[in-house]
């Protein structure tokens, strides 16, 4: 299921009672959602935290989705590998959720609630900043490689010609002769072959050969005296033959090939490092996100049920969501019968400002673990 619900209700036996109610009709799978004894603080602090935690919840979820989206982007034609890489603490998302336990080392439970929220917020802000920096560096490298490869493909009128020609296509180291490369539209190929020698009296006879052909154009070489080049170019333009500017240099061609190989290797290395970073920080963000959910459940439960703290949180995997909602509303209607319907218009005044969209007699928060966009 892509969706889980966290609810809480007064008393220590919430999970046992829910199991008895939901198991007979296979309405949901239920798990204890462990929240430690956190510091309550003052009522004013809790009320203020409700709003802050709602914003942090949305923020962390947005960063998680950014991480997932970027993982999907850099996988390119291997997007089917995405879900198998979305693990948290080396287990899949559902396993992590159903076995959730509070991380005391990262988020000390005896710290004030506001301080824990600030730890999470700063942690995720740093991950967001690192993501921007790493993504920018990788995208820059990827763009450089794409630009170089784009020059090696496409129309003969624009593409790099270095990978198409060979040394034997040119007259080199001659004081008087040079070789030009000419792009000819395919319908005019026969015209070129019949007339190129007549474009100038100083064209070397039978010096032209077809080097390469694509769907639209053909690439020819032609040798001639250097003093005839400008007139030859003009005559070629008149007949719609395009002389490409090109100077054969083995050193330059080798440099381009070396640059291409280096960019490909750099991209591969950086991709590997970036993908590992994304996996690690997806896990970090997801852990942080579920701790935010736990904080929200705790704060809302104390505000709803009062002191001393006496509630139990349960993680539900809805198997029949509509029936589960009806069962929960009926099961907990005694907590607030006027709100059993869960309608938005029934929300008490002031709670809408805290981002509460679904209000029920019990504390309720939703976790959507389908973080990929299958429509892409």
TrEMBL record:
<dbReference type="GO" id="GO:0046961">
    <property type="term" value="F:proton-transporting ATPase activity, rotational mechanism"/>
</dbReference>
<keyword id="KW-0813">Transport</keyword>
<dbReference type="InterPro" id="IPR036132">
    <property type="entry name" value="Vac_ATP_synth_c_sf"/>
</dbReference>
<dbReference type="Pfam" id="PF03223">
    <property type="entry name" value="V-ATPase_C"/>
</dbReference>
<comment type="similarity">
    <text>Belongs to the V-ATPase C subunit family.</text>
</comment>
<comment type="subunit">
    <text>V-ATPase is a heteromultimeric enzyme made up of two complexes: the ATP-hydrolytic V1 complex and the proton translocation V0 complex. The V1 complex consists of three catalytic AB heterodimers that form a heterohexamer, three peripheral stalks each consisting of EG heterodimers, one central rotor including subunits D and F, and the regulatory subunits C and H. The proton translocation complex V0 consists of the proton transport subunit a, a ring of proteolipid subunits c9c'', rotary subunit d, subunits e and f, and two accessory subunits.</text>
</comment>
<protein>
    <recommendedName>
        <fullName>V-type proton ATPase subunit C</fullName>
    </recommendedName>
</protein>
<dbReference type="GO" id="GO:0005765">
    <property type="term" value="C:lysosomal membrane"/>
</dbReference>
<keyword id="KW-0406">Ion transport</keyword>
<dbReference type="InterPro" id="IPR004907">
    <property type="entry name" value="ATPase_V1-cplx_csu"/>
</dbReference>
<keyword id="KW-0375">Hydrogen ion transport</keyword>
<dbReference type="GO" id="GO:0000221">
    <property type="term" value="C:vacuolar proton-transporting V-type ATPase, V1 domain"/>
</dbReference>
<comment type="function">
    <text>Subunit of the V1 complex of vacuolar(H+)-ATPase (V-ATPase), a multisubunit enzyme composed of a peripheral complex (V1) that hydrolyzes ATP and a membrane integral complex (V0) that translocates protons. V-ATPase is responsible for acidifying and maintaining the pH of intracellular compartments and in some cell types, is targeted to the plasma membrane, where it is responsible for acidifying the extracellular environment. Subunit C is necessary for the assembly of the catalytic sector of the enzyme and is likely to have a specific function in its catalytic activity.</text>
</comment>
């Amino acid at each position: 299921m892509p969706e889980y619900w966290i609810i809480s209700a007064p008393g220590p036996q919430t999970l046992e009672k829910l199991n008895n109610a939901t198991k007979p009709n296979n309405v949901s799978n239920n798990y204890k959602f462990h929240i430690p004894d956190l510091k309550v603080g003052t009522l004013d602090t809790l009320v203020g935290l409700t709003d802050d935690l709602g914003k942090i919840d949305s923020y962390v979820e947005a960063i998680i989705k950014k991480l997932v989206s970027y993982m999907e982007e850099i996988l390119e034609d291997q997007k089917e590998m995405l879900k198998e890489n979305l693990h948290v603490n080396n287990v899949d998302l559902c396993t992590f959720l159903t076995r959730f336990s509070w991380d005391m080392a990262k988020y000390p439970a005896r710290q004030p609630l506001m301080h824990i929220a600030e730890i999470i917020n700063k942690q995720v802000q740093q991950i967001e900043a690192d993501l921007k920096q790493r993504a920018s560096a990788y995208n820059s490298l990827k763009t450089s490689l794409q630009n170089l490869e784009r020059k090696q493909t496409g129309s003969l009128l624009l593409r790099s010609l270095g990978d198409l020609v060979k040394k034997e296509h040119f007259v080199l180291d001659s004081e008087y002769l040079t070789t030009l490369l000419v792009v000819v539209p395919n319908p005019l190929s026969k015209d070129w072959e019949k007339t190129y020698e007549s474009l100038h009296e100083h064209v070397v006879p039978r010096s032209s050969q077809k080097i390469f052909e694509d769907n639209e154009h053909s690439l020819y070489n032609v040798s001639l005296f250097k003093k005839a080049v400008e007139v030859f170019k003009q005559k070629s333009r008149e007949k719609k033959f395009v002389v490409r500017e090109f100077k054969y240099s083995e050193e330059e061609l080798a440099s381009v090939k070396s640059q291409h190989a280096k960019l490909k290797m750099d991209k591969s290395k950086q991709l590997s490092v970036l993908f590992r970073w994304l996996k690690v920080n997806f896990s970090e963000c997801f852990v942080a996100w579920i701790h935010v959910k736990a904080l929200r459940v705790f704060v809302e439960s104390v505000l709803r049920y009062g002191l001393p703290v006496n509630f139990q949180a349960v993680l539900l995997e809805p198997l029949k969501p509509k029936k589960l909602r009806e069962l929960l509303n009926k099961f907990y209607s005694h907590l607030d019968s006027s709100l059993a319907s869960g309608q938005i218009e029934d929300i008490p005044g002031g709670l809408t400002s805290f981002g509460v969209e679904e209000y029920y007699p019990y504390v309720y928060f939703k976790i959507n673990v389908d973080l990929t966009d299958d429509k892409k």
